[in-house]
Amino acid sequence: MLNIKTKNYDIFLTNQNSLLINKFISKNKYSKVFILVDSNTKKYCLRLFLEKHLNGIKIELVTIKHGEQNKNTRNLYLAWIKISKLGGDRRSLLINLGGGLVSDLGGFVASTYNRGIDFINIPTTLLSMVDASIGGKVGINIQKLKNQVGLFNHPRFILIDTSFLETLPKREIKSGYAEMLKHGIIFDTKYFETLSKLKNIDSNFNIEHINCSIKIKNKIVNKDPKETNLRKILNFGHTLGHAIETHFLSKKKSKRLLHGEAISIGMILESYISHKILKMPFAQCQNIKKTINDKFKKITINREDSKSIIKLIKFDKKNSGGKVFFVLLNEIGKCETDIEVPKKTIIESIDFYNS
Ligand SMILES: NC(=O)c1ccc[n+]([C@@H]2O[C@H](COP(=O)([O-])OP(=O)(O)OC[C@H]3O[C@@H](n4cnc5c(N)ncnc54)[C@H](O)[C@@H]3O)[C@@H](O)[C@H]2O)c1
Ligand SMILES: [Zn+2]
Asked: What does the pLDDT read at residue 297?
């Protein structure tokens, strides 16, 4: 089992059975153990989890519907009520078994129920293994605004078992891969090159790559836990990526994009903007575009889409005072934050993506 230490908690990485949680529960003498699942992780992950990691311990299940639209106040309320009805108290433990929806909402439930109970994260998507479950951000969406309500709080530990990836759809695996590429692009050229060369992005994901991504995210978060400066670099590709994600959410189902898919387009656009504004070599910008286009389905962003995407940028809460600030690259592996970008360069970057 690999063990990554962070300032506040440990991350364990394995594909084997473990007694870690059993031991942790006995040691801490929890009054009750709750497991939060969504309808898919209940179906695909719960049995595996109980067999491999939680032998003979009585649990209470809290289930929410799957899908980003359920990361809302209604489910927050339903989870509080369910835990309360089942006798949850200050000495209860919440286990978040699922992707980013479950760890974000569950982390918020645990941080607020009875003024805060312990929680642990068991991420079941690649995206949550390398990103969402780590770093202490928890919260929910309100209306169109993603992650608008939340706080910083850490799990007691995170257990990553890569066997959960076996039931995860390939499209979801690629969505997580996009965030891994981002880690390479902003922080580690060699890692970016290694990931670019991968032939198949599927459930046999190399545990060493997951380990590498976690270490990069962890290094960044440790230096700046509350996102006052360095942590902002994790938002590379996200200023435009979020706007693209939101724009296509209002379209018919076949046009909607997963988070990582939208972010991968955002990274192409923001690489182009980096070339224009910070003079990142054009060859590197093309390299990023080629890597992403080789792995992800290309979409077309027409004039109507562009207009709506640009309008949506201002909703990104990281932007203040009506101005739009970007994380841009000097070169692959090195970036700068808080750079203002004119609208015309954003439009050009969309043309670059379409070309
Ligand atoms: N807190 C953070 O720092 C942070 C960082 C990045 C993303 N996020 C959040 O994470 C969320 C996205 O995370 P996600 O991509 O994991 O989405 P998700 O939790 O919605 O999971 C994606 C889909 O896969 C299903 N699923 C999960 N595990 C499965 C498995 N093993 N087998 C089969 N199906 C499975 C889910 O039910 C869902 O339908 C967003 O809400 C985003 O805002 C948070
Ligand atoms: Zn992201």
From this structure: 93
